[in-house]
């Protein structure tokens, strides 16, 4: 027996969740042979432009510093980032991407892009509609705080250019 259709907004959110999970699964499968996870790639993307301390990086990718610490530990073991204690505040670590990290990030970007089919005719309109959807919540009264918590990589997904991105 087919369940009765739900109101439009709920149907839409179910579709969004399903589409996001599908893209995440495709990207996870593409990253696995590289030994990377989405969380690792998001951390690399965030620290690539400039070194920053672990707390700044955690805030930038919208995770707790302790959770990020585990990801950074694995990245450091692989030689993709370095973490250096701040001599002025021994509790802080300065995180910097390495040359190997930049190379891994470039490879991961290509793998994630290739994981999502580019021959879907509706990408342009889908991206436009998703951008409008996010903008609506970012500018709506009462919704701004929740919508602005969405990680930046989720706001700028383009399967032809960048993978989205924790």
From TrEMBL:
Residues 141-166 are annotated as: Disordered. One of its GO terms (molecular function) is DNA-binding transcription factor activity. Signal peptide: none annotated. Keywords: DNA-binding, Transcription, Transcription regulation. One of its GO terms (biological process) is response to stress. Residues 9-142 form the HTH marR-type domain. This is MarR family transcriptional regulator. It comes from Arthrobacter oryzae.
């Amino acid at each position: 027996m087919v369940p009765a259709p739900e109101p439009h907004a709920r149907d839409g959110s179910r579709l969004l969740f399903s589409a996001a999970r599908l893209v995440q699964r495709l990207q996870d499968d593409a990253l696995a042979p590289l030994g990377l996870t989405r969380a690792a790639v998001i951390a690399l993307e965030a620290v690539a432009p400039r070194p920053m301390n672990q707390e700044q990086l955690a805030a930038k990718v919208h995770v707790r510093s302790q959770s990020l610490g585990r990801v950074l530990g694995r990245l450091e073991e692989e030689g993709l980032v370095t973490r250096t204690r701040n001599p002025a505040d021994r509790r802080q670590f300065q995180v910097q991407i390495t040359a190997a990290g930049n190379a891994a990030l470039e490879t991961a970007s290509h793998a994630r892009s290739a994981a999502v089919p580019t021959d879907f005719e509706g990408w342009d309109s889908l991206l436009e509609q998703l951008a409008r959807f996010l903008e609506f919540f970012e500018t709506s009264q009462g919704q701004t705080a929740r919508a602005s918590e969405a990680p930046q990589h989720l706001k700028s997904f383009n399967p032809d250019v960048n993978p989205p991105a924790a």
